[in-house]
Amino acid sequence: GTMESMYDMYHTLKSMRKRQLAHQVLNLAMIVCSALMIWKGLMVVTESESPVVVVLSGSMEPAFHRGDILFLHMGYAPFRAGDIVVFKVADREIPIVHRVIKVHEKETGEVDLLTKGDNNAVDDRGLYAASQSWINKEHVIGRSKGYLPYIGMVTIIMNDYPIVKYVLVGVMGLFVLTTRE
Amino acid sequence: LWSAVAALRSSVTVADWSGRMGEKKYIGDQSKRAVIGDSNTMKRMMDDAVINVMLEDDSPFVEDVGLSNLKLVIGFGSVAASVVSHIYPAPFPKNWWVLLACCAWYFIGSGILQLLLSFVELESIVLLRYKDAERRGKRASGINVTSHFPRYQHVYTLGITPLPSGSLALFSAPKFKPNPTREGRELPQADYAQIHWSVAEFFDEEGVFYEDKCMDMTRQFLDHYERESKRIAEQEPKKSK
Fold first, then answer.
1. What ipTM was predicted for this assembly?
2. Mean pLDDT for chain A?
3. What is the DSSP string of B150-164?
């Protein structure tokens, strides 16, 4: 049963030599760090602060639904109406995925963008900061390059019920520490 | 001289050893149990028993920690790289160069670790140095103990290869080659540097592990290896003169 396996795991850990335990801890740390470094590597390659995002609301239906995963990149091409961008406005932690509907390019090189969710009745001016009518390049995290449907629901569940995250990580950690493959 | 050595090798078979084991009665350690067929756990238990024998207080060996320390340093160095990449205080995209450097450091570090595992360490379970290494000369101042136990087979092969002196000698040391299996349930040909055991010798039908028996057979194998390698070493000076 579970109690027996917990007892076995405790026993295994206790009977290891210190050096062996150090190697097992290193194995576990390398697994966690590999996941982190792949993420950071994606950030470097796509030049986007968040190379993979999950769509949280239905404001872009029917193009994207809640739970879809989007792959982002920045790129150097100029912004055009129709581009789907992910942007952050001041005071809001959660980035927004909407479509660019107006683009104003100034002589200085600055670009003003207006966005709107496909499924929304009004544009996003109500979402921007108090005195802000446009967003600029510095607000944009990335442009949508590809997508996977519905797989992001796992992230949404883990966000709504954080205990799932801790339980999953805890169990995986125990297993890695006590296996030697 | 080489024909004498060859004759010596072919005369050593597993039967010489296991015959002597019949006298002592062993009791299994009920707390050490594996599911028969779970090769990983079984190999781990047997490896641990062998390592315990090698690192006993009255064994002629001390653990050689060079390679292990190298792996730990490179490994935790890579972990440090990933921690730095996570906690560096500049926001994205200003920290792009830092991220690039950390990613390069991490992937190079873990690449080196993987190379070490795949090409240098192979099946080694512990590296040892003789406590009286000065007397032994440069070529064999230590040993590399390896164990070979493929999945779904019942034969566990324990091997000893000499380890030259020098902290990273494993790079250039001779590699261990387990003797090939034979038809049916016969064990492979043994020689003084490797021995083959059927796991049925140490595990009963319930999976209880007889650690004491495994440790005794390891000690016997080690004594035999010591005697044979000493005998062969004593015959060498005649050859070079």
1. 0.74
2. 85
3. -TT--EEEEEEEEE-
